[in-house]
Amino acid sequence: MIRIHAIAARVLALTALTGCGGAFQPYPTVPPEVRPGEADDGPRVAICYDTFVSSLDQVQAAAQQECAPNTQATPVRTDWYLQYCPLLLPARATFVCTPNK
Q1: What residue segments make up the domains of the chain, in order of their start?
Q2: Could you give the CA distance from residue 59 to residue 46 in angstroms, rounded to a whole number?
Q3: Is there a contact between 89 and 81 (Cβ–Cβ < 8 Å)?
Q4: Beta partners for residue 12, in sequence order
Q5: Cα gap 63→97, rounded to integer Å
Q6: Are 42 and 96 contacting, i.e. CB atoms less than 8 angstroms apart?
Q7: pLDDT digit of tens for each residue in the chain (101 aa)?
Q8: C-alpha separations of 23 from 4, 26, 27, 49, 86 in Å
């Protein structure tokens, strides 16, 4: 009887985890302040993501969606401070939205 409950619990947990695939997608967050000596070339956007799950192309695409039209999301830096991104998506990539030339 206990074995059936253990199997059912595992199946339920796996089902829940596979249904949460969208929970690990990159999403926008608060961009960091410009550091002293760092160029302030335009508006900034930041994306939380998991370095093991999300590709750099996915992160770039998420940043591009946050930038205004006729601009290009240009990567500036990445940090892992966990102040604005949760433990499951610990990396924060910062981009500058530079005008297209």
Answers
A1: 23-99
A2: 10
A3: no
A4: none
A5: 9
A6: yes
A7: 567 655 555 655 544 444 455 668 999 999 998 888 887 788 999 999 999 999 999 999 999 999 999 999 999 999 998 888 988 889 999 999 999 98
A8: 29, 9, 9, 10, 11
